[in-house]
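Q: Joint fold for the lines below.
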Amino acid sequence: MNDVTIDPGEPLGGADPVGTATKDNDSAGVTRRTVLRLGAAGSLGLAVAAAQGPGSLFLSQRGLLSPSGAFAATSTALADLVYIEAFPTSPLILSPFTDVLPVPKALAPVPVSEFSSWSKPPGPGSGQQNSMQNERHQIWSSDIGCPDPLVYKIDLLVRQHAFTTSMVLPIDKNGRPTLSFDQQGHPVAAGTKRFLPLSTIYGFNGAFPGPMINAEYGRPVLVRFENHLDENPLGLDRQDFGAPDWSFLTHLHNGHTAPESDGNPHYSMTAGPKYHGYLPQTFCDNLYLNWPAGNDDREKQSFFWFHDHRMDHTGANVYKGMVGLYPIYDPKNGMDMGDERQGLRLPGVRTDHPDGSFDVDYDIPLAFYDCRLDDGVTMHKDMHDTLGEFPAAKNPSVHPEWWGKTFFKHFPSHGFVGDIFTVNGTAYPVLEVKRRKYRFRFLDCSVARIYEFKLMASTQGPRTAASLGYTDDELEGQYRIPDGQQCMQFTQIASDGGLLPFPVKRDSFELWPAKRREVIIDFTRYQDGTPTTKGDVIYLTDVMKMPNGRMWSNSSRFSPDPNYKVPVLKFVIGDSAPDDSQVPTAMRPLPPLPSNWKTMLDNRLIFEVQRGSAGGEIEWLINGSPFTPDVVATSLKNNAGKTPLAQQRKNSFNLWEIRNGGGGWVHPFHLHMEEHRTVMRGGKDVTAGGDKGHPDDVSREDLAALDPGESVIVYRGFRDFVGPYVAHCHNLAHEDHAMMFGWEITS
Amino acid sequence: MSTSMSTSIATNRPAVAGRAAVPWLTVLPLAVLMSFADGYWMTSLRGAFGAIQRTQDLFGSWVRDSTVLVPAFVLAVLAALVLSARLYGPVLRARPSVPVTALLIALAGTVAGLLALGASTAYDYELESSQLGLMATMQGRCVAGDCLGIQRRATLALQERSVVMGMGLILLTNLVLVGWVVAVRGGRLRVSAPGRAEGAARSRADDLRRLLAVGLVCSAVIHGAVVPEHLVEWPAAGAFFVALTGVELAAAILVIRRPQASTLVAAAVASLGPLLVWLCSRTVGLPFGPEPGTAEAVGLADVSACLLELATLAAAVVLVLARPGLGSRPGTGPHRGWIAVMALLTVTTVGFSGTGLAGFDGFGVAPAHGSTVAGHHH
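A: Joint structure:
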């Protein structure tokens, strides 16, 4: 090549530099070269237009309109090609809204005479906190001037649960009748209507949801959780999910408790049981002091729930039934004591019982939980197969013998969402309400599903999604109300952190996993002022379409789908009833932010939730590390150039930043022990309520709702106790895949 | 090849004294486009299946990694053009010559992209495998026998699938891109450009000297990049790398300006010295320093520097031993000469990305709070 001589003035390298093609085409008016160039320019133009039009819309709807957003979207699409996750289609419930909504009654405490005769009675002494006798309560009730606690006993039991009494029709993903199977795994012909078999649960006192403890500030509660999961008196098939060693670890979400009563794996792996949880035939006494952080009334909350927190199997255990309710009232000055004639006069008629417990009418907790029932043909397969945790199941395998029972495998790529929506353990229930105001305490105890609720009226009533032509993911929820129209508003009075400073009227609200929202619904009139009449029907309706555990595809905030109206709970207006309640104008003031909080920004602690893969699966990490139970996490480098440990002095306050680094996912991020207040979201000061998508940012919360690519900076305290705690994603598939970190309070 | 090309051009064009030069206006756009397009897939695949430490700031990672890979794609395009010239001569006239050349370019770019993807995937697997080991120690229960082994095999299978997937995506992308570039150019493609007359005087010795000088500069770049890291770790090591960088740069200048035997010997020594130090530090450990007698980990930067030093050592030795003969032999031509230079630049940019400068998340560099250990150099 080095000896070549050429004419620099001559066009080089063309296939037809000045050749005949040009001349030929000239005669037709357009050269081949021109056609090619026009084609290239046109294709480029099309690509740019597609990127700026549908491409930008697609990314912005998923919060991915950022420099890395296109990569995240592509990564997600590529991952979907490999991580094939098959979900069963649950049988269609044929008679929805006929089962009555279970309204839990308060659990009765154990009489003193009874628990004092226990072989290991509860108490403040050394070794009295658990059955291993190696722990004591960090603060006993008398240390804070409170009476001895009411003692409750809750056993972890293997039992059964029915989600519906209705007959069902087995359907496939196209909504067509399909085969089902009997308990021996023999096929039953397509089109056969059946009753569901009962699902095996691990339940607090053997129920789902478990018991409800009505608590009060100033009146401590001690709950002895005792593990009897090794006992199986009914000889039930435990299937292939739930902690395989039958251990439990109960967390009162988000009680202000000492670590030994908090039920978190950072504690359990380093103290107490020194294990993932409490094994069968052991117990632990969780002491809930019902005492606000810093003894500050403004830190009082109003609705907790307790659930399992066993390391690596929290999602499985919660899904298997380990859920309990814990409304907490504030009797101080009668402010919120469940008596609508006193204090704030929130709806509620209280009945005190001689045993010290009490029930409150017109004050109803609603625990939302979605599930999938096995279709007998979907493969059971996840990373736990590699650990051999359920050898009898011989997974990967199909299990026709489990047809109609709850199906659960870890789905860390898509998360896990169900296609049957339940309230208080019952699918599509009905509640007859009086013509008056009610207080409802909403709780999302689902593994990953986020709901957005509206109150709707429908003339035609629910129709099956299958009959409307929907298939596959669109069948989730099973029913729709095509003609549904919003007819009432909610008056939100509380969020995770308790009563708001003032009530907020809302057309709809989102409910993320583990979050609580309390609302007042006035069943006497519609939002346009028209009075209700007996027999009127109102549907609590989910309008957030969430086809998988990653995030919603449609919601009011992001491209609403007017056709997605899934009725979840049916209210039927009944007779009028006396109503002494009022909607207050002011409730609980927020604890003040220090005026200099912005000066703390440089030294904040930063934690980024991230997504990667390991073991052939998606893994979720924080600051590049999996949850290491005996390690206190390290912050990313902050503006001060430091990487501090997640270690706070007792009674200190600080700013923590939580970043969502996993493109295309939402994360409900939960911080144990004290409520926080969001001060910045996406780099903007929201202390005055600047973010419309997250109106609760101005309240106290224990869970930061992180949209894709979003970051929040929260202000929080670390008061009263010392020791190890955790923070983690409350998408339980993420939590169980290491999306958690340990932190601690030092003395 | 030179004979056939001479014939071809002599028969088709008026003869002008000069050499067929590299058509940079063809080579560079194609290389840059393929590098960034293939880089997009590599980055996205990493986001889907890569180790967590390497899945952050995907956009920044894409820009950095794609830039680093540009010389590799230049090398690939040049190789394809040389092959095309061998097949069709320096001017593509016959009907299939342009599509075949475009195909060759796309294939060569795909090979470059796949090599990069393979290396990246292997590194991901190493990181993920370490992470699995860490997690296995925490979970502490495994009733299925070799759980860690099962999980590592699953991870490996996943990475293999990602490479296969990437292969298809990269090939398709390169075919579309090269086709689009050819279309933009009206269906034409250059494999050579008019050269300068004075170029005809270059000898094989000139080519080798240029290569030696470039290699020394490249080596100096990597050594200079690791100075800050070593200054922090051990100031004496930092001073060593400052001196080494200076010596290599001086040798490069002298090789071009005063190509005497003594200069070439000095260049050989400047190449051999750090090679011996590296060998010692990676096998038995240096007898002095912060950790005497401890072998250091092998990293991307030091391996790259060693490759460059081997190349410069070989060039210097050849020049010293065969100097008179080389001076009378004609040079290899601009295409091949640039291929050699681009090979050196590729090694340099890849090695530079392993030094931890400029936020590269590349091989052997520990990101903030990552679990990997930075590979130390020499």
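Q: Anything notable?
A: Chain A has a mean pLDDT of 91. The two ends of chain A are 79 Å apart (CA to CA).
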